[in-house]
Amino acid sequence: MAKSATTNEDAPGLIDARIKELGDWRGAMLAHVRALIQQALPDVVEDWKWRGVPVWSRGGMICTGETYKSVVKLTFAKGASLDDPSGLFNSSLEGNTRRAIDLHEGDKLDEAAFRALVAAAAVLNGSRAR
């Protein structure tokens, strides 16, 4: 019987393959933010949804990692409810729920602030950050 959906077990390998397939700054950036997410939440769940979008969750969706021609977009599902004292959110600011971070080639991400934002998203989802 053929699988109808990707399982969580498949997701890490599919994300690895996507990073390799990109083969440019977008793949390197996606790998970098993935590592930061895993540092912030070592037990984060990785999913692969919507025909090729990495999704990280714990107690609910934390963020997605979409890749486009000129941007890696990290969309936080409940970003509008998160404090962002470092001003990482720079996209999707008009909505009442989501917020996003658009990363372009050459951008430097404030790693400590990003890890704190990921941990805060997990707390908002009702799971304690470790």
Give a description of the structure:
The chain has helices at residues 11-22, 25-40, 111-124; strands at residues 45-49, 53-57, 61-67, 72-76, 99-103. Strand 3 (61-67) and strand 4 (72-76) form a beta hairpin. The mean pLDDT is 91. Helix 1 runs antiparallel to helix 2 and helix 2 crosses helix 3. Helix content is 32%, strand content 21%. It is an alpha+beta fold and 130 residues long. The chain has one domain (11-124): Alpha-Beta Complex (Aspartate Aminotransferase, domain 1). The longest helix has 16 residues, at 25-40.
Comma- or semicolon-separated keywords:
130 residues; alpha+beta; Aspartate Aminotransferase, domain 1; five-stranded antiparallel β-sheet; 3 helices; 32% helix; globular
Order of helices and strands: HHEEEEEH
Instruction: Give the oligomeric state of the chains in this entry, treating copies of one chain as homo and distinct chains as hetero.
Output: single chain
Report the structural category: alpha+beta
- What characteristic shape results from the CA principal axes? globular
- Read across the widest sheet, the strand sequence of neighbours is 1-2-3-4-5
Based on the coordinates given, report the CATH architecture. Answer: Alpha-Beta Complex
N/C terminus separation: 39 Å
Using the CA coordinates, give the radius of gyration: 14 Å
Which blocks of ≥5 consecutive residues have pLDDT under 50? Answer: none
By CATH, the topology is Aspartate Aminotransferase, domain 1
Q: What's the tally of helices?
A: 3
Would you tell me the overall average pLDDT? Answer: 91
Largest sheet: 5 strands, antiparallel
- Helicity, in percent? 25-40%
The CATH class name reads Alpha Beta
In percent terms, what proportion of residues is strand?
15-25%
Give the tally of β-strands: 5
The tally of domains stands at: 1
